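Researcher: Next entry in the queue.
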Amino acid sequence: MDNDLTLNQDMIEENIIPWDIYPRPQMKRKSFLNLNGKWDFEVGQYEDIPRRFSMKIMVPYPVESKLSGLGTHYKKGSRLFYRKFFDAPMKLRWRRVLLHCAGIEQKAEIYVNGCYVIDWCTAVDGPMTVDITAFLQDENELIIKVIDDMDKSIPYGKQSEKPKEIWYSPVSGIWQTVWIEAVPEYYIKGIKVTPSLDWADIEIEGAEEGKVVFEGKSYRFYDGRIRLSPTVKRHWTPEDPHLYYFTVYVGNDEVESYFALRTLEIKEEYGVNRLCLNGEPYFFHGVLHQGYWQDGLYTPEKPDDYRLDILTAKSLGFNTLRKHLKIEAEEFYYQCDKLGMIVFQDMVNNGRYKKFRDIVLPNLGLTKLPDRFKHRGKVSRRAFINAAKNTVKSLYSHPSICYWTLFNEGWGQFCSSQIYDLIKGIDSTRFIDSTSGWFKGGRTDVESIHSYLLKFAPKKSEKPIVLSEFGGYSLKIGDHSTTKSSYGYKYFENAETLMEAILKVYENEVVPAIGMGLCACIYTQFSDIETETNGLVTYDRRYIKADDKVFAKIAGMLRM
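Model: Structure for this entry, 560 residues:
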């Protein structure tokens, strides 16, 4: 990681506003002030706000990233202080003003003009939205104090203070857009979309009555709900990702949104249960996408980088991304909605990971240990439950998301049947994988299996079978790697032998399992990440190892 502070600080230009797009595509207003860009920055060991800010940082890139201008990880106990001055223009001054940020790692305290406003943890509490109207002046000072002590009771994903192999650089501070918007006294607080094949049910949070303009017509609603049925029905698929746009009006508030027509269900076909999209069996041909970028870590340099990853995956024949142990900015899901990429969305794990329990025992065949008494810490359990509920709530309306993964390989796993019931009660419209990988906990929609070291040869199951991780074949491209070491599950010297091996595992293991009830497979993985060199593209996204002709052949074999 680049620690030349002087060089990096010189990179921060005064007037650049990275990620200058509206951050919430499914609930878009015209009133919007992006606070990204150059912020004052200071690190302290105490709780008090510093009198002096000696550094600059580029928001929304995490502190450890090169793009932040710092590229430094500060030790446990450090307090990260961000400061930004902004005007309250006339379009914001006389209405309610909301401050938003969906990505702060791990905890934050908000101060406006010297006044304490609120504390928040986006990993647990969900995307931050705070009413700051009462604290505003003509000229304003916003200070965000961030505390990131790598608290394992809070969902933290693949971060490690000692990154190696499957563990990656830690991420601290602000890593998504900070923005404010003006709303009337009474405003639309949320939009929830539940689709079918013929219509979409729309729930408007915060308003009992108003109107919706759809397909050039105006429709009134009176109980916070309305059903929209398009004149022409086009069902959302990766092959035809059609979206329907509409606008909601409540008093003086106006919000643009969209929906798709799409259903998910499990049906029996020829004696096995299949995952179905829009009533028909569909094979979910996927690749693991962990959401790390070489220069930005958690945050790609620009929003279009999401689009490029999705289009690259589609060009290789994939129709599904497993979003692994990370919640992305909403722009990612919008691009998946628009471009046609199914998302299998993981919850972000917390709790202690132990290699012997979570890797060695399962590979010896011990995969049916009960989970009721695992990870018994009350704080950790409560944090995971709150985070999972907020993940479902905040992402519910995206048609691309078809599948929730609750626990991955026993990491943080507890009472998975009860958590399944909880999430199913919130969202009965999607598939739920309670335990991806090893320890089967009971209630789940699928039989989820990871297969790296042994041949994949599943037994027939009463549930649809999902090969939720496999492959992990490593090829290091020296000119596009910044690491001396290399990690994967099998190692190859060139792209030709890598492609031969990948094609062989699909032909000999994946395709024969379809007759046994295999409905989905997730290859590990889309890109290299630091020392892990088992991606189909390099970490810098400049070199594609995968041969599109080979992958076109694979995609052809997996069509149902």
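Model: The radius of gyration is 24 Å.
Researcher: Noted, moving on.
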